[in-house]
Amino acid sequence: MFEISRTPIRAKNRISPGKATIEVITKYAEKRPAGPLDIVIKMNGKEVAAGRVPVSVPLGFTANDCLDIGMDLGSPVSVDYFDNAPFKLNGTIEEMRVNYIDQ
Question: Structure pTM?
Answer without folding.
Answer: 0.74
